[in-house]
Amino acid sequence: MSENTNIRHIISAADFSQSDLRDLFTLINSIKEAPHHFSSTLSNRVIATFFCEPSTRTRVSFESAIARLGGACISVADGATSSNAKGETLEDMIRTVGGYADAIVLRHPEDDSAERAACVASIPIICAGAGARHHPTQALLDLYTIVEARDRLSDLLIVVAGDLMHGRTARSLIELLAQYEGNRFTFVAPPQCTLHPDSKAVLDAHKMAYREVPTLEDALVDADVLYMTRLQKERFADKTAYERARGTYSLSSTNVDQLPQDAIIMHPLPRNEEIDSAIDADPRARYFTQAHNGLFVRMALLATLFETEANTMS
Ligand code: CP
User: Which CATH number is associated with domain 2-135+292-312?
Assistant: First the structure.
């Protein structure tokens, strides 16, 4: 979590240390075991979910988390129905909603939107997806899903496949996994959307071993974790480049046989054609577990944010 004056914000996965992650995972396990113990954590709190891009999982799991913690939720589910459509700036919207709520969960198409919102906010900002740059809460639920399934976060071979240029979930997850010793990465991407230079810089800064290979078949045989992502069609300036990239890295019932039996298959969802639905019944497929974990991870983040605030005020 990052701090702007006395307000805690959740802007970037890179703000979470290994110690923060241990504490968060302990709290998630407590919430999973006894959710009723947390049912008044947000009593008398109002949380705004403000989404200027489409979402199913992030918005609905945040709203469910708020309800299960005893809070109330006000929601803009579509930027086109807010004064965003009349040309209102992000800063003015954040200042305004800051008078109605105790925190804002924000999804916005611009890479620096969460930082800009935090600069003017009088209440905590939780980034729920910022352009092609940040998706910290997704990365946290991804990491939790990995440790739950593999019992460790180090010495893993992680294969990340898909749109590594425009995909914010892969970029955020790399920022977390690069903190753990002995991890190695294999990246598979169409030539139009290879690994983002910022991700390479993160890996280099942490002295992480990685390679880039042209096809999924070159990557699967030793993988501990396979993290598939969709092509971010909405972020391609050139739609013909998108069409050329389609279908170049699909996981099918044929090539999935190359994946070790104890590997896990992840995807932040929504998926398009990159995972055949026949694989959903494979015990290695964890993408719906991953999405369900989002509820508990977001409950824990909200509980931590408001516990911190209560401690600061007492
Ligand atoms: N993974 C994810 O961010 O999904 P949504 O776009 O449905 O929120």
Answer: 3.40.50.1370
